[in-house]
Amino acid sequence: MRILRAEEHRALDAATMEQEGITSLELMERAATAWCGRFLKAYPDKDREIVVLCGPGNNGGDGLVIARLLRFEAYTVSVLWAEIASGSEDNLTNRRRAKDSGVHIRTLSQGDAFPTFRRNTLVLDALFGTGLSRPIEGYWAGLVHHVNEQAVERVAVDLPSGLYADRPSGSAIIRAHRTFSLGYPKLALFSPANTPYLGHWELVPFRLARPREAVTEQANNIMLTRPLVRPLLKERYANDHKGTFGHALLIAGSYGKMGAAVISARALLRAGAGLVTTHIPRVGYEIMQISLPEAMCEMDDHRYHFTSAGQVDAYDTVAVGPGLGKDEATQAGLFQLIEACGSPMVIDADALNILGEHTDMLALLPKGSVLTPHPKEFERLFGKTDDDFDRWELQRQKARELGLVILLKTGYTTIATPDGTLYFNTTGNPGMGTGGTGDALTGVIAGLLAQSYSPVDAARLGVYLHGLAGDLAARELQQESLLAEDVVSHLGKAFGKLRQGAQ
């Protein structure tokens, strides 16, 4: 699903009205009706008082329609209408309609005392929409801060007021507990910096024109969803065998860090690779053989560290990094490996940290290699950025420039491809923020590469499956108790879920 900029959403609205011969007022009614449908399912308790905070623009117009529709559904609902400006024509029309339907409307003017709310009130935020072009200031910023301090539950209509759709925002922003965002996704939804304002968010689709009919520039921000990922899965046939599914080499582990190697190797096999050889220091031999008898072991010359992988041409893919350490001999071995490897690799953890200290080596990586940094590793590799939006653009730029697939691990992991596309993953949960889950992801992607998935497909499918496995594990075990091994053990269920139907 395409992620659209604010101006693209406006173009899409205009295209919908033109194609269907409807007015902006009718489109507003359609969007608000869809929003109300989702709200009714999430908040069926009609005993709670609802206050809709409306501004004078189209977002406020949506709020006024919502207030009227909720009144029809027998909710106790009132409106606080902020007299920031005179109000758009559609907004004023829906204000009259809401009043005629029996909704109590109180006008809030600059300088008035801030309103008080009963405890447990539901405040629906429709104060400012995606058309906001400057930070909220003065009295209205004070109102936003005041609402945030109240003992109420805040639900945002489309986006929390004060949050820009596709760039960094100011300081006065509604802190929503839930956000029901209308239409197509917006970049703001995926920004780690916006998490405190969005709460739990989800999309509320409604009928619009096709994006390609409204967006002149090819959209290069894509949200990973099941319909996009499901067709990537390859079928398995009766005469397939372990040779069909590829042979991967995993270079991992060092003294005290063999667990990372075991987790990654197990994930590699669980992702479907036919054969796995682990190249590990001699100190890890018994650990690997006992922990994962399905994996073959190749011993390094050094007892405690990786120093040289030898010939790698016989393998379908190579993954390097989990638990590797940064010993001087390890660095030399990594550089030798990069020069010797002619096909895309998966590079993670300490291998990335070594490259972060020797960034000239990035240009020597095989084209199509998959890098899997977390934000700090990304910064060491490519430099500091001012905000999430700048970091996404740097990620895109470096993927193009170096011909790599760069995967940035955050709550909504992003995948930048050499053609400039940026994919945003939608699976996974905070319970996966524990040691070893990144090592598992390295194994999953390497396992898919071994089976001849393209680097881009291996990254997209691997990230989605890894997150889905984490979601399935969390449902069973709860987020607080999640371990990396739980994610790996639920990969089979994730494959099944993806094949069978929606989550």
TrEMBL record:
It catalyses: (6R)-NADPHX = (6S)-NADPHX; (6S)-NADHX + ADP = AMP + phosphate + NADH + H(+); (6R)-NADHX = (6S)-NADHX; (6S)-NADPHX + ADP = AMP + phosphate + NADPH + H(+). Residues 225-498 form the YjeF C-terminal domain. Its cofactor is K(+); Mg(2+). Its EC number is 4.2.1.136, 5.1.99.6. Binds 1 potassium ion per subunit. It holds the Pfam family Carb_kinase. AMP binds at residues 409-413, 438. GO terms for biological process: metabolite repair; nicotinamide nucleotide metabolic process. Residues 9-216 form the YjeF N-terminal domain. GO terms for molecular function: ADP-dependent NAD(P)H-hydrate dehydratase activity; ATP binding; metal ion binding; NAD(P)HX epimerase activity. It comes from the Bacteria. Keywords: ATP-binding, Isomerase, Lyase, Metal-binding, Multifunctional enzyme, NAD, NADP, Nucleotide-binding, Potassium. (6S)-NADPHX binds at residues 58-62, 129-135, 158, 260, 323, 374, 439. K(+) binds at residues 59, 125, 161. Homotetramer. Catalyzes the dehydration of the S-form of NAD(P)HX at the expense of ADP, which is converted to AMP. Together with NAD(P)HX epimerase, which catalyzes the epimerization of the S- and R-forms, the enzyme allows the repair of both epimers of NAD(P)HX, a damaged form of NAD(P)H that is a result of enzymatic or heat-dependent hydration. Bifunctional enzyme that catalyzes the epimerization of the S- and R-forms of NAD(P)HX and the dehydration of the S-form of NAD(P)HX at the expense of ADP, which is converted to AMP. This allows the repair of both epimers of NAD(P)HX, a damaged form of NAD(P)H that is a result of enzymatic or heat-dependent hydration. Belongs to the NnrD/CARKD family. This is Bifunctional NAD(P)H-hydrate repair enzyme. It comes from Neolewinella xylanilytica. The gene is nnrE.
